[in-house]
Amino acid sequence: MTHHILVTGGAGYLGSTMVPDLLAAGHHVTVVDNFMFGQASLNHVCYHPNFSVVKGDIRMASVMKPLLKKADLIIPLAALVGAPLCNQDPVGATTTNHDAIAMMLKMISKQQIILMPTTNSAYGSGDDINFCTEESPLRPISQYAIEKVKVEQLLMEHENAISFRLATVFGMSPRMRIDLLVNDFVYRAVYDRCVMLFEGAFKRNYIHVRDVSRVFQHAIGHFEAMKGQIYNVGLSDANVSKTELCEVIRTQLPHFIFLDAPLGKDPDQRNYIVSYAKIEATGFQPMMSLEKGIQELIKGFTMLKNTRYGNV
Question: Looking at the 3D structure of the chain, how many domains does it have?
């Protein structure tokens, strides 16, 4: 079954990978994005007759109302993502990450489907053994995590919604983000050959950007069985500490050196092992391992270097 899908923030890191996949699956896709980073990450799908794009602000009802009316499935990706960016613009973060979603939820009908990424960063350090399932208590600390928790609560009041609590995403994308943890460490390993860690023993978990796209398509295909639920999405065999992650990177880049020092603190104190049994029970399995993703990133960073303020 094909859908008319509205993807907000569809030119971003997740969207620029997901939108081509949705088009390839036969869906009609409309993207609304403010293109705040000046990205041209959807150039390669402009040829497609089922692709439409709108430059606009999701916080404006006049922009969203006609777009929502045409959609039978909505994927809200637009957000100021991560604690650092939210700290830089707290007002923009609240109006984009919370208020715009609350407005959208009031505009849609009960029949319309929403598939939304949230975050597992709100788990904090989990229980006494740092183990988290979808039923674990949430302990958000940063503005980003707090507002994502509030939005998820609103989302789950909608009967045709699914929330995906994503692990830290990694991998190459047309709209690349080097700041994400795995991407950042591999970039440093390629160009700096070293990284200084803080809280190196803290356990984190990961998911490849292409597997994020795949889990949304999986939900479309299994919606009746999955609707109304929250799912953790990540790699079951990649609940690893920052130090362990560096060791995995070093298997492919032997020159890589890493040291641990008390130089910083995670805004959400993420230190947990996350269970993905619930999403796996629906038949979903990630395809991209941490090792394969690191190999991909090494290739990508051969072509990509952030030299905006450098001359080498």
Answer: 1
